[in-house]
Amino acid sequence: MYLLKGKRILVVEDEEAERMLISLYLQQQGCRLYHAHDGIDGINKAKLVVPDLILLDVDMPRCHGYAACRVLSEDPATRHIPVIFLSAFADVEHRVQGLMAGAVDFIGKPFNFDEIRLRLAVHLRNPGNTTTAHPAPETISGHEPNDAPTDPGEGPSYLHQILFQSARVHLIKELALTPELKELATQVGTNTKRLNEAFRHCAGTTVFEYLREERMKEARRLLQNTTMPINEIAAMVGYKSSANFATAFKDRFGVSPSHVRRC
């Protein structure tokens, strides 16, 4: 942790869940985080903040990671900044392509936190990557104040929080879909047992109990704030049957969806 403390890391990643997963972990390590959502945004942010290191996704809209890395490596203002690629494609061909674009390393997805820490530490040992003035770091997007990580010694462990927040983004993004627990665990780089443990520590429920509650909350919001038909709301939050939706809603809130709509 000492080697990473205070280091300014720019995370260029278009997927919010992936961005949140790695950012929460690096915050725990004492890093100062900056974020970009695609290659062009990443180039602009790199010139603006001149970070100590850039974590760059390969497959992004508007500007591919390899193209962004070439621009960064050819610009005198940014070419000294080490770039590490993040990608689910970690075979030799992709690694070579990344190195030829100017990157110093490659980290495969799903992330292994020990690997991230060690690889960053190796490439941050050079004390020459410093600047005299830096803007204040951005906060992690998508967090409400109550979702902010606590001190490592208080409440749920950071690993639980990282897994919970990352999986939460996947679940809320598509409430109509019910993912296989194993698939969801793989997406956030863990196993089903540890993922359920994370949800029990952070939310007091299992993964699917949490998903059911989020569906009910979203359904109530839509009933109160829109004129969308009840059957469409049911489908939007993952219920194929309006009758099943109405039963689940009444069990949760004590009133029917139509009663909420009338009020």
What is the helical fraction, as a range of percent? 40-55%
Cα(first) to Cα(last) distance is 54 Å
Main sheet attributes: strand count, strand direction, barrel closure: 5 strands, parallel
The radius of gyration computed from the alpha-carbon positions, rounded to a whole number of angstroms, is 21 Å
CATH topology of the largest domain: Rossmann fold
Order of helices and strands: EHEHEHEHEHHHHHHHH
Structure notes:
With 263 residues, the protein is α/β, with parallel strands linked by helices. The chain has three domains: 8-123, 3-Layer(aba) Sandwich (Rossmann fold), CATH 3.40.50; 157-207; 210-262, Homeodomain-like (Arc Repressor Mutant, subunit A, Orthogonal Bundle). The chain has twelve helices and five strands. Helix 1 (16-28) packs antiparallel against helix 6 (158-173). The longest helix has 19 residues, at 207-225. The relative contact order is 0.10.
Layout of secondary structure:
Layout (H helix, E strand, L loop, with lengths): L7 E5 L3 H13 L3 E5 L2 H11 L3 E5 L7 H10 L8 E5 L4 H9 L4 E4 L4 H11 L34 H16 L7 H7 L4 H12 L3 H19 L4 H7 L5 H12 L3 H6 L1
Parallel strand pairs: 1-2, 1-3, 3-4, 4-5
Helix pairs in contact: 1-6, 2-3, 6-8
Describe the structure concisely for a colleague.
It contains 12 helices and 5 strands. The protein is an alpha/beta fold. The chain folds into 3 domains: 116 residues, Rossmann fold, CATH 3.40.50; 51 residues; 53 residues, Homeodomain-like (Arc Repressor Mutant, subunit A).
